[in-house]
Amino acid sequence: MKHTIEKNKDKTKINFELDAKLWDSYIEKIYQKEKAKINIAGFRKGHAPRAMIEKLHGKSIFVDDAFNLCFRECYSKVLDENEEVFPVEEPSVEILSLDENGIKFSAEFSVKPEVKLGDYTGIQIDKIEYKVTKKDIDKEIDTARARLARKIEKAEKDSLAENGDVVNLDYSGSVDGVKFEGGTAENQELELGSNSFIPGFEAQMIGMKKGEKRDLKVTFPDKYHSEDLAGKEAVFSVKLNSIFKKELPNIDDELAKEVSQFDTLKDWKDDIEKKLTEQATQKEKAENENALIEKIVKNAKIDVPDCMFKTELKYMLNDFAQRLQYMYGGLKIDDYFKMTGSSVDDFNNQHKLQAEKNVKTRLVLEAIIKTEKLEITEKDIDADLDRRADKSKKTKEEFLKSVDTEYRNYVKSMLVSEKVMNYLNANNKIEKKSKK
Description:
Blueprint: E1 2-7, E2 12-19, H1 20-34, H2 50-57, H3 63-81, E3 92-99, E4 102-109, E5 115-116, E6 124-126, H4 134-147, E7 150-153, E8 166-175, E9 178-191, E10 213-219, E11 233-247, H5 253-259, H6 265-299, E12 301-302, H7 306-327, H8 333-340, H9 344-372, H10 378-391, H11 396-401, H12 407-426, E13 429-431
Parallel strand pairs: 6-13
Antiparallel strand pairs: 1-2, 2-4, 3-4, 5-12, 7-11, 8-9, 8-11, 10-11
Helix pairs in contact: 1-3, 4-6, 5-6, 6-9, 7-9, 10-12
């Protein structure tokens, strides 16, 4: 087999040429594979000569399968021998000639682009910091109190619904005087001020009395899960059945005992502060590292083919679809789009910039890994697997049986990411901005 590689600005093309003998060997391979399925009168099944089969069914009977086999083998061989040629899309294949002299064909595709690294060491960025405040701790306590809140009915006839009250109501919604599907309910509970209903609905209920009826005029958001209602003005006829005041428990040791593993309020607060500080530290680390990487990517020069962004969007959509199924009991992506009045195009437009960022970041980090020879050895992977097995209190063999067959590759990618990030942290400065 002969081949030539043409490298253009946007595409790379491999031209293949097989002489008659080599091309015929692929025809023969397919004949040997398929002959058992072909019946020819006068021959036992599977024993008809190739020439007889081609005479009766045409010489092209084995050509398509032979070409598919030929292309796969030749294409893979050339890519294996030329590691610098890295396709990032399926090739466009064209048969240039097929005759008694053999076959000529080509494969054209976009390749992984060359990355020209700019400065990726000696960079200084302002450190992002998150401090845990008393307000943050109080917010956690208030959330816990809300879970234990008691509802006490306001029995007085002149009691008015206030912000923060829980009300029981009946309602019926209509647009242009016509009731719409899903717009009617009885004995519905709603906390005023929770912003659970359409904007403006809850605010108009404040000041209502038990048994009172009122028409509430609202406008559905422009982006609403029902396209028929999006942006429409509606009227909800509401009847207030009852009003409940929320009674929150006191902030004391008894509350700490009920909602935590601690006996005192002080110990519980200390634990809340500790956990919030850990979360803040992790958030700081992630955001500072992202800021550093963004600057390094911005310093690099890279011309990414559109196909890589499209592929990344497909990966992102697949990942989103899997998370939907996991989080919402098997909800399918098509049903999600129907419920939200959106589409694949909407998803792609919304995530286009993130997809571009993902691809560029990955390519730049790969270039740094290659330049600095930040490689992970099999010994590194085995050591990490031992650590993970020990953490799960299993032997290494037991642990490996409990995970996916691709888990080793996952561990390798995690170790590579950790190694390159350690290198970048060690060779750049993330410092608190000095005050002038």
